[in-house]
Amino acid sequence: ENLVDLTALVRAEACDIGLAFDGDADRMFCVDGAGRPVSPSLVTAVAAERMLARDPGAPVLYNLICSRIVPETIRRAGGRPVRTRVGHSYIKSVMAQTGAIFGGEHSGHYYFRDNFRADSGLIAALILLEALSARGGSLAEMVAPYDVYVQSGEINSRVADADAAVITVADAFADRGDADYADGLTVSSGVWWFNVRPSNTEPMLRLNVEATDAETMAAIRDEVLALVRS
């Protein structure tokens, strides 16, 4: 809902891109020339490619709810993808340990080694504009090659016992994919993955699902939600 005014202005003024920042400008979101929001995972992939062109072979961080296109892009650009938990403190710590040049979160936070490992929506916006200027064409055209998966977006469910709900989901998917507990529960198969993790501040579980097609994404999403909310 916070992008409504930006979307309307981009369409009314026939802009090429619209940029939105939170209050302290450490997060950045954007919409394309048609006013459609661009996933922060796609922005992370574009920025990682630009950063690796300047520092080939370097580590690049991404959190575990980013799209699969992010580590795929990092590898394709010659970098080393490093998967992290969600959150500032984890990412900044891993950046210090690995010397990563850049890190992106699906929440719109972008971290830069040369900015004291701090996140900056303004630097991310400049890199995105640089990429768009160098490529030419529209933002939609630029991100289209990265937009190959279907994501659910983050879905919150209020629960009485978050740990018990996670165990219920883990049991139901025990034989259907590879599971890890780096941050909540992540289950991955060849064509889909999901992560369900407890909120740090509320009796809430947060679900993210990604798949190669919309039908599969919706099926996994609905199955996990039914288990969480039962």
Would you give an account of this structure?
The protein has 230 residues and is of the alpha+beta class. Helices cover 40% and strands 23% of the residues. It contains 8 helices and 13 strands. The strands form 3 sheets. Strands 8, 9, 10, 11, 12 and 13 form a 6-stranded antiparallel sheet that branches. Strand 1 (18-21) and strand 2 (28-31) form a beta hairpin. Helix 2 (40-54) runs parallel beside helix 3, helix 2 packs across helix 5 (121-135) and helix 7 (162-172) packs across helix 8. The chain is globular and about 50 Å long. The mean pLDDT is 96.
What is the element string, with H for helices and E for strands?
HEEEHEHEHEEHHEEHEEEEH
Describe the sheet with the most strands. Answer: 6 strands, antiparallel
> Could you estimate the helical fraction of the residues in percent?
25-40%
How big a fraction of the residues is strand?
A: 15-25%
Mean pLDDT: 96
Structural class: alpha+beta
Discrete helix count: 8
Number of strands: 13
Low-confidence stretches: none
Mass-distribution shape: globular
Mind telling me the C-alpha Rg?
18 Å
Distance linking N and C termini: 29 Å
